[in-house]
Structures are given as structure tokens and as C-alpha cells.
Write a structure and sequence with these properties.
The chain is an alpha/beta fold. It has one domain: 3-Layer(aba) Sandwich (Rossmann fold), CATH 3.40.50.2300. It has 6 helices and 5 strands. The protein has helices at 14-24, 37-44, 63-72, 88-95, 109-122, 126-139, and strands spanning 6-10, 30-34, 51-55, 79-83, 101-104. It has a 5-stranded parallel β-sheet, sandwiched between helices. 31% of the residues are buried.
Length: 140
Amino acid sequence: MSQTKTVYVCDDDQWILDTVVDIISSLKLDILTFASGKLALDQISKNKPDLVITDINMPEMTGLELLKFLETNKFQIPVVMLTGSLDTGNLREAVAYSHFDYLNKPIQPFELIETVQKALSFGYQESQLSEEFRDRLKKG
């Protein structure tokens, strides 16, 4: 019997949180939502999830700061970054850290489901996934 996977979703926009939960709820996951990176980090320190989906731009603690903390402290959790604007500076900085992927808002349901399934299947994959992310950035 396989254990249910846990996904943390972080975004300061309640509508985005609700949308992500609605989309991925069909995957039969334990989903916890957080309005900031700091709130998510407090919980991650207690219970490590199988995946984190986070907005890049949030007050208090950005998704990028959350990603840096996870990497620096070797949590080895795949992370999907959500962005409403293609800020190549933030995306390039994220490339320096190992994570899974990024998705542009507005969120496309099929793309989100596919990305979540891949992230949960592959888990934390440092070099290969970072390389794929770099290739996507080069293509724009």
C-alpha cells in the first residue's frame, strides 16, 4: 500500500491557492496551503512534504527565499515555482538552486497536473532537472 504524498502550496493570493488545490485535488494528495513562505517554512521544519509549489513574489518571505533556505539546509524537496511575470532575474537566480520547474500564471490545469506528477515521480533531482530548467529559460 503506497503512502499518500504531501504537497505544500504557498501563495499570498487566496484565489491562486484555491485554484491550485482545485486542480491537483484529483491526484489524491494531502495538500496544505500557506499564505507566505515563512508559514510554509515553519511547517516544513516539522513535517517535510514531498513537493512544494510556491509563488516567487510574496511578502514576508518570497518563494525564492524559501527555495534558498530549503537548498542551503539540504531539505532536498522538489519545488515548483509559480510566477505571474516572467522576471528573468528571479528565474536565473532560481537556476542557481536545485528545484523542479516553474510555471507561468495564469495556471494551465493540464500543465500543472503534469508538472506535479513528474515532480512526485522524480523527486529531488539536482543536476538533471536544473539543466532542463536552464534550457527552458534559454528558449524564453
